[in-house]
Amino acid sequence: MRWAVTGLGHGTDNAFLVIAGVCLILFLLIIGLMSYFVFRYRRSKGVEPEDIHGNALLETAWTILPVLIVLYMFYYGWLGYDARRKVPEGALTIKANGQMWAWSFEYENGKPSDRLVVPEGRPVKVTLNSRDLIHSLYVPAFRVKQDAVPGLERTVWFTADETGEYDLFCTEYCGTGHSQMISKAIVMKESEFTAWLAGTAEAKAAPAPAAPAGAELFKSKGCAVCHTVDGKPLVGPTLKGIFGKKVRVSTAGKEREVTIDEDYIRRSELEPATDVVVGFPPIMPPQKGVLKEEEIKALIEYIKGLK
Ligand SMILES: [Cu+2]
To answer: pLDDT for 233-242, tens place per residue?
Structure first.
């Protein structure tokens, strides 16, 4: 995992270091003094405890000192937080959408991507949304962590200082496929990024998808989290060689047999709860309004081809 700290990330790191430093000093001070006193005033020396009840000087000191220490830590936390709140004008805006169990990103020109591709050295504002439940976008290298809440737009911004590939996670437990809701944040040189965004050049790090290829969609839309193409059932049934086969499904509580054709696959993508294959839990997130028509078609073609 790469761990480059970006410009904004320093605020987060400073707060962390200050708090850790204060804690370390207090720890050493308390343990050190305690050990010293245990030795110095040990019982065998016959020392009697002093009654310090009502000592105004001591009580004032141990009230004011901790307040100052806490304010000191707060100050650094505030600096980092405040910088995070103020999105610089002219920042590149990218929409991020969380869904069970994949991230998708959309650029100002409408270009979709399953990875967060950003230019080096330029502020990037990410507006977060969720299609189903609460997810959380997490890019440790950028010190970025923000919940994506359905029906509520959240934003987060950062400037990436160093080109490269960084890990991107969902960090809010969102069900069976949560642990696989991972992607990459890719930082490119400005020129490379411009080319990638325009789709005129195939940048090595993140090839631009021309037409939605079924196999690609199968991964990027999160299908592969629950369905295999090699014959082994996972959370959901395998999709290998299913086209044209008969399968027992539960429809509105009644079991029946259906033949897997294009209509059935389409229905299973859009409203998976309608016909649930017997033996599997009805947990697939509906893709109605999520998948575009050409994506549905590409996936159907892909599944048909899985011999
Ligand atoms: Cu999630």
So the answer is: 888 888 888 8
